[in-house]
Design goal:
alpha/beta; Spore Coat Polysaccharide Biosynthesis Protein SpsA, Chain A; Rossmann fold; 2 domains; six-stranded mixed β-sheet; five-stranded mixed β-sheet; 14 strands; 23% strand
């Protein structure tokens, strides 16, 4: 059965309010804590847990089976399946399988190594009822404490407006995958997840497709998830250049296609890399680079030596106060002790109109 058979009149698939979707691969050391937290939900509607095991070689399957009676005793159905092939098929495939075997009208995504707070399902469900075509996230607490400090601060402090304006940054989806909650109908319109396997950013691909379809982004402000950092996380297998290309393409599609010209804020390595990654048509729209570094500004010109055009493009390098908007900002957020943010404020620019962050 497919992920979207709820739309075809299979009434069995519309009897549960929320399905918690958990992909599993060699997660036995975390599963007890993860599953206990699902069992502790204060949600008063009907709940189901759908788990798919992606060729685990540890005792994940046995741990899952040992919880079935506990869930059923509390009136929560638990659907468990998986495969035992020699190789795992990846997170996208595993999530799709867990969704396919589930029956909830709403989907709550949960990683096997994370822990949800007792109010997570109820709060996100209430939000989703009001915003059916939206990916709903929530605040997180990162463990171990202090790991990925800037990233965690960004997740929790980004505003509702920035959930949409900062989708081009290297942080990835502004509503992070382990916190996703959405209607099955919306998932079916956008999905399924890409099943390319290891190294494929299935969450970012889905996130961008959701935006293309006109989907919204929202976040429950409270911390509703303990978000674990460890070296075995699937995120670490995604290639940086794959993410870069996706971001550049989406930026060109959604923003640069609407602008007649623009300035790249950063005359250094990242700004030049962005310029080189653009289509020829968008390279021609770059009126200048700007920077705060006097050494770069004094050079006055960036020459794109690898260009096949003759003469080779020569782009002015200006002080940011001399440059004109709109800007693509290629300076990392939260890395300059507030200097970048203050500079943007003093120019009285509006994010999402006069500039977008890319780094």
């Amino acid at each position: 059965m497919g992920e979207c058979e709820a739309e075809t009149g299979d009434t069995r698939r519309t009897t549960v309010d929320v399905s918690v979707i958990i992909p599993v691969h060699n997660a036995s050391c975390w599963l007890d804590e993860c599953l206990q937290a699902v069992l502790n939900q204060d949600f008063t509607g009907s709940l189901e847990l759908s788990v798919y095991d992606d060729a685990s070689t540890d005792d994940s399957r046995a741990v899952l089976e040992s919880w079935k009676e506990k869930f059923e005793a509390k009136g929560v159905s638990m659907v468990i399946s998986g495969h035992h092939s020699a190789q795992p098929r990846g997170v996208g495939y595993t999530k799709n399988q867990a969704i396919s075997q589930s029956s909830g009208r709403y989907l709550c995504f949960q990683d096997a190594d994370d822990v949800m707070m007792s109010q997570r399902v109820s709060l996100q469900y209430e939000t989703a009822l009001l915003q059916p075509d939206t990916l709903i996230g929530c605040g997180v607490r990162r463990v171990p404490e202090g790991s990925t400090e800037r990233y965690t601060r960004w997740i929790n402090s980004i505003t509702q407006e920035q959930l949409l304006t900062q989708v081009y940054t290297s942080h990835g989806p502004t509503v992070i995958m382990p916190t996703w909650f959405c209607s099955r109908d919306w998932f079916c319109k956008v999905g399924p997840f890409d099943e390319g396997g290891k190294g494929v950013p299935e969450d970012l691909l889905f996130f961008y497709q959701s935006l293309r379809q006109g989907g919204g982004m929202a976040r429950v402000e409270q911390c509703m998830l303990v978000y674990r950092y460890h070296e075995r996380a699937a995120t670490h297998s995604v290639l940086e250049e794959t993410i870069w290309k996706l971001r550049v393409d989406f930026l060109q599609e959604r923003v640069l296609s609407q602008w007649e010209s623009f300035t790249i804020w950063n005359a250094g390595k990242q700004g030049r890399k962005l310029y080189r990654s653009l289509s020829l048509a968008n390279q021609k729209k770059v009126r200048a680079f700007c920077d705060v570094d006097e050494n770069k500004i004094q050079k006055g010109i960036y020459t794109y030596e690898d260009s096949k055009e003759r003469p080779k493009p020569r782009i002015p390098v200006l002080h940011y106060r001399e440059a004109s908007s709109p800007f693509i900002i290629c300076v990392k957020l939260d890395m300059t002790e507030g200097v970048l943010e203050d500079n943007l404020k003093c120019l009285q620019l509006t994010e999402g109109v006069d500039y977008y962050h890319f780094n």
